[in-house]
Design brief:
By secondary structure, the chain is α/β, with parallel strands linked by helices. It is built from ten helices and twelve strands. It has an eight-stranded mixed beta sheet with strand order 6-7-8-3-9-10-12-11, with helices on both faces. Strands 2-1-4-5 form a four-stranded antiparallel beta sheet.
């Protein structure tokens, strides 16, 4: 449905002397695709490029290099009107904090009608019917329509935000840490709602979070980002059960699971700069397995037999369901 191919995003920033300017490498050579009905989870620590990738996926950020293809068409060679009409209505966004994502002066009815009015969907009566349908879809009572966001709970506000994202019947929903501002009990309700909507509507979904344990049970596939690069990607159950990149293993150990016993991996060493990233693997400065080979160039992609891909010179040893080491596939060049 949508594919990023070799996408780079570099932001200009002050630096390099009194009047000099430098570049922040927010995203580097990112390749990712999302199919209809699939949930792809993006995980990584703060500043790794998750939100930048979300902005590229939603057309809010034009990449410095690379292509964004929507149903095979290059998004940024489309005429502006076509991009707004076809792509703009096909992608919905759920932001991190519902208290700031919703206009506090508009009622829920006005918030849900706004995208329908902007895109001129149907008659006035049909728009009102769609608003009521959206409210029912996310499990909110009818009297909520007359309420302002400040009169709702955090969970209710996020449900309104999800309903607004669904207003134009999109093919793809991008949810940027939609539960981080909610209480733990409410998070489960919102996550269950997202999964239910995917099953009922066949939506493609990109779910962004720093909590890999949450993503592993929600997503079909996981992409792990570090310093703007996707270092590992694959089926969620395989990545979580047997990570190949050391950073993925460290990330899993930082958010312990109640189902498994994990040993915390404490990372040492300097965090690399996004304005001056290392020439090799970006995790070299903190990786306990790094050597001179890791510092030379970014590792080529290695494709595993189970649909996984990783970039690492010294990957973790995979395990089979029986617990025995599995055969290690050979790396292929990304050139």
């Amino acid at each position: 449905m949508i594919r990023l191919d070799g996408v780079h995003v570099r932001h200009k920033a002050r630096g390099g002397g009194l009047f000099g300017r430098t570049a922040v490498h927010a995203l580097t050579d990112a390749t990712l695709e999302v199919s209809r009905g699939e949930i792809v989870g993006l995980v990584g620590e703060s500043g790794c490029g998750k939100s930048t990738l979300a902005r590229v996926l939603t057309g809010l950020q034009k990449p410095t290099e690379g292509e964004v293809r929507f149903h095979g068409k290059d998004l940024w060679t489309m005429p502006g009107a076509e991009r707004r009409h076809d792509f703009g209505s096909a992608v919905g966004v759920v932001f991190q904090d519902p208290s700031t994502a919703l206009n506090p002066r508009l009622t829920v009815r006005q918030i849900l009608r706004d995208p329908l009015d902007v895109h001129r969907r149907g008659t006035r009566a049909e728009r009102e019917a769609r608003v009521a349908e959206l409210l029912d879809l996310v499990g909110l009572p009818g009297h909520t329509l007359g309420a302002l966001p400040g009169q709702l709970s955090g969970g209710q506000r996020q449900r309104v935000a999800i309903a607004r994202a669904l207003a134009l019947e999109p093919e793809l929903i991008v949810a940027d840490e939609p539960t981080s501002a909610l209480d733990v009990s409410v998070r489960a309700q919102v996550l269950n709602l997202l999964v239910d909507l995917r099953d009922r509507l066949g939506l493609g979904m990109v779910f962004i979070s720093h909590d890999i344990q949450t993503v592993r049970y929600l997503a079909d596939r996981i992409a792990v980002l570090y310093l703007g690069r996707i270092v590992e990607e694959g089926p969620a159950d395989r990545v979580a059960a047997s990570p190949r990149h050391p950073y993925t293993e460290a990330l899993l150990s930082a958010t312990p699971s109640l189902m498994e016993a994990t040993e915390r991996i404490v990372l040492t060493g300097p965090v690399p700069s996004a304005t001056n990233p290392p020439p090799g693997c970006p995790f070299t400065t903190r990786c306990w397995k790094a050597d001179a080979d890791c510092s030379t160039a970014f590792p080529a992609a290695t494709d595993g037999p189970d649909g996984r891909r990783w970039h690492c010179v010294h990957p973790q040893t995979p395990t089979s369901p029986s617990g025995d080491p599995a055969p290690v596939p050979s790396a292929r060049s990304t050139a």
